[in-house]
Amino acid sequence: MAIVTFESVATAAEALQAAGQRASVRAVTAAIGGGSPNAVLKLLAEWKAGRPVVRIADTELDHRITDAIKVQMQRVAEQAAATAEERAAAAADDLQAISEAQAAAEQQITVLTTERDAAQTKAASIDEQLKAAQADAHRAAEQATASATALRQELMTERQRQETTAAALARAEVRLEAVPGLQAEIERLRIALETDQQARQQAEQQAAVLTAKLEAADRRATEADARTTKAEARTDAVARELLNANAIVQAGQARLESAARELEEAKKAVATAQAAAKKSSEEAAELRGAKPKAAKAQV
């Protein structure tokens, strides 16, 4: 964007005047290659205020000079009226340009506000999903831990019973070797051993089933942790998006406030220009209706 200065605005306005064009905010902005319409309007008003205004003072001259002055006054009055009308038209054009800039800024703020509201709604929804996922993961972890503890306890109890049965069998074999007459006791112990072996096989099968259940519970706990981690990552991403949206909205609001201040300055400048145009029109009307005073003889 071009840098707007008084020199650049004055140069562009003078060039437009020399080319027979009206020095409006749009034309000057296009001539200098861009810039804020409010800044251009303020500097353009300063340039117009610094231009010389043609005034006609009361004179006491020879009637021939007075007649010539009358003709010149009529020309000047027509020129002043045309200039006043041009300034009024330029002021209206400038006000239209500022109004369009204000409307664009308000539209941008509306879009940014809508985006911010959508981001906040999305963040609230994801936050609820995260809380639900965390609760599910916590319950699954508690269930998995309880199942694993129970399975380990059952497996330990079964192993202790197997060890007790094996020790009794060993003692019986020793007694058998020492006392051959204890066949009935040995037979009883063998039957007990076979029964215990069957029970041990069943216990091993149950232990295998319990181990599989424990592994499944561990996998569910791991999956719950993964879902929790993924939900937290999604929450962080949405939080960053929400921060970015808030930053954009704040920047848009700042631009809107700046545009409002510039619009207020522009309105003041336009009011000043309209007052100047009104004054110029009054002067032009006064010049058109003025009659030269009778020339007085000079001593």
From TrEMBL:
- Biased-composition ranges for Basic and acidic residues? 279-289
The residue ranges flagged as biased composition, category Low complexity, are 269-278
Coiled coil listed as a keyword? yes
Record flagged with keyword Coiled coil = yes
Q: Where is the composition biased (Basic residues)?
A: 290-299
- What domain of life does the native source organism fall in? Bacteria
Alphabetized, the UniProt keywords read: Coiled coil, Plasmid
User: Sorted alphabetically, which Pfam families does this protein's record hold?
Assistant: KfrA_N (PF11740)
Q: Where is the KfrA N-terminal DNA-binding domain?
A: 5-121
InterPro entries for the chain: KfrA_DNA-bd_N
Looking at the record, which segments are called Disordered? Answer: 264-299
Q: Which residues form a coiled coil?
A: 81-161, 186-220
- The name this protein goes by in its record: Mucin-associated surface protein
